[in-house]
From TrEMBL:
Assembly with partners or alone: Monomer.
Originating gene: miaB
Gene3D superfamilies recorded: Methylthiotransferase, N-terminal domain, tm_1862 like domain
Localization (cell): Cytoplasm
Cofactor dependency: [4Fe-4S] cluster
Domain Radical SAM core: 149-380
Family: Belongs to the methylthiotransferase family. MiaB subfamily.
Protein name in the entry: tRNA-2-methylthio-N(6)-dimethylallyladenosine synthase
Species of origin: Paractinoplanes ferrugineus
């Protein structure tokens, strides 16, 4: 019995946890479901199929999943034919245990076989038995799968999956495997296809974008890829995440500075400022190298906004180590930071390390770090008051705040801007130029009349309720192996 046999199209809802890579993969899951004849549920609580795309990075990731599955059980009992599927990193880690702990789950699929979901759902329904399928390595590049994008103006484009590093606190390599690089031509084709759809901003995605090309022997491939995006007509903003300080090379800084559509915003995970802790984390760089990169980036792009990730309370971290982290924060002047209290991740080397730091000490350090970061981000934001900025009006952030009459969006450096619209009626996806009038620690306001409003195709698409729906991008050649080399810097020739 297939979907069509039911006459009515079954509905689906995807619930995403974790990182941008999961957001990217969830767009593929939606694309697959729609390709298989499902429609997105207008009311997620009434969906025929609920798909959890899980994260395994945080300690409470498990509790959250099993908590949500527990909540869904009574709904399923009242909704005959309803199916529940669990995918993503936690599924890759827990596998069949998920069905043992929650026997009302119908399908468990991993990070390497997203494409199997529709077939697994059908098989589970036909056999009235749970289907668990986990692969040890990538079946097909998720980017080659159909996709249903969330945004009319911004797109995630993966350039590689997996990671070759072995940071001792991280479970990603165990769950997403070794790094596999997409061919540049395929990446650029996907970016071009998106731009043709009206998308203005693309974020290149990879666990470690700086090692892109290692698989096909071109250490300068990432810098070349950035330059190549510069030639794509209509593409106004290029961002990337996540770089790794150990592989961050000068050619990438030059490509950022010399390619007009590459935004001067850089997310550079620090994790710790202490060389001793960085060694224990197996991060393969030290404080001096990290600050050296920041200095070079600022020399090449004085307006660059730099953000970071910091873990507080890594096993063995002393007060002196923590002071080193604060020292780097003082010198790096981040525009914002993702901060984490270290939490044990079973299966990672750090989880069994001695000298786990007591919670109260971690909390105290965390509070001091937040206070310092806030002081600095606010001071850096205050320097921008009076400056003219270009804002890409964003959904969610883009709604009109009835109380203040402001809309919101992101400046080219990634900062969040709330702006008065005056008599204009910008739509998400449009571009507004305005002058900053007020700075807060985590956002900026522009309360004067906007200087200009550019209506874009992305704004038209938003107004028309259209989001890009792309068939998987593949040049029909074998997916893994040596790609056509990227022409040096002149572009024209892809996390
Ligand atoms: S670079 Fe380190 S932290 Fe990042 S995904 Fe790879 S192993 Fe994890």
């Amino acid at each position: 019995m297939t979907i069509e046999d039911l006459g009515t199209r079954r509905t689906y809802d995807v619930r995403t946890y974790g990182c941008q890579m999961n957001v990217h993969d969830s767009e593929r899951i939606s694309g697959l479901m729609e390709d298989a004849g499902y429609v997105r549920a207008a009311d997620p609580e009434a969906a025929d199929v609920v798909v959890f795309n899980t994260c395994a990075v945080r300690e409470n990731a498990d509790n959250r999943l099993y908590g949500n599955l527990g909540h869904l059980r009574p709904t399923k009992l009242k909704h005959p034919g309803m199916q529940i599927a669990v995918g993503g990193c936690l599924a890759q880690k827990d596998r069949g245990d998920i069905v043992k702990k929650a026997p009302w789950v119908d399908v468990v699929f991993g990070t390497h076989n997203i494409g199997s979901l529709p077939a697994l759902l059908e098989r589970a329904r036909h056999n009235e038995a749970a289907e668990v399928e986990i692969l040890e390595s990538l079946e097909v590049f998720p980017s080659t799968l159909p996709t249903k994008r969330e945004s009319t103006y911004a797109g995630w484009v993966s350039i590689s999956v997996g990671c070759n590093n072995t940071c001792t606190f991280c479970i990603v390599p165990a769950l997403r495997g070794k790094e596999k690089d997409r061919r540049p031509g395929e990446i650029l084709a996907e970016v071009e296809a998106l731009t043709k759809e009206g998308v203005l901003e693309v974020t290149l995605l990879g666990q470690n974008v700086n090692s892109y090309g290692a698989e096909f022997g071109d250490r300068l491939a990432f810098g070349k890829l950035l330059r190549a995006t510069g030639d794509i007509e209509g593409l106004e903003r290029v961002r990337f995440t996540s770089p790794h300080p150990k592989d961050f090379t000068d050619d990438v800084i030059a490509a950022m500075a010399e390619t007009p559509n590459v935004c001067h915003s850089l997310h550079m995970p620090l994790q710790s400022g202490s060389d001793r802790v960085l060694k224990a984390m197996r991060r393969s760089y030290r404080q001096e190298k990290y600050l050296g990169i920041i200095e070079k980036v600022r020399a090449a792009m004085p307006d660059a906004a730099i953000t970071t990730d910091i873990i507080v309370g890594f096993p063995g971290e002393t007060e002196e180590d923590f002071e080193q982290t604060l020292e780097v924060v003082r010198r790096a002047r981040f525009s914002s930071a993702f901060t984490f209290q270290y939490s044990k991740r079973p299966g990672t080397p750090a989880a069994t390390m001695p000298e786990q730091v007591p919670k109260a000490v971690v909390q105290d350090r965390y509070n001091r770090l937040i206070a310092l970061l806030e002081e600095i981000t606010w001071a850096e934001n205050k320097k921008l008051v009076g400056k003219k900025v270009e804002v890409l009006v964003a959904v969610g952030e883009g709604r009109k705040d009835e109380r203040t009459g402001r809309m919101s969006g992101r400046a080219r450096d990634g900062r969040l801007v709330h702006f008065a619209t005056g008599d204009l009626a910008p739509r998400p996806g449009d571009i507004v130029e305005t002058v900053l009038t007020y700075a807060a620690p985590h956002h900026l306001n522009a309360d004067g009349e906007p200087l200009s409003h550019r209506r874009t195709r992305a704004g038209d698409a938003f107004e028309a309720g259209r989001t890009p729906k792309l068939k998987g991008v593949s040049l029909g050649l074998p997916t893994v192996g040596v790609p056509a080399p990227l022409p040096a810097t002149s572009g024209g020739c892809a996390l």
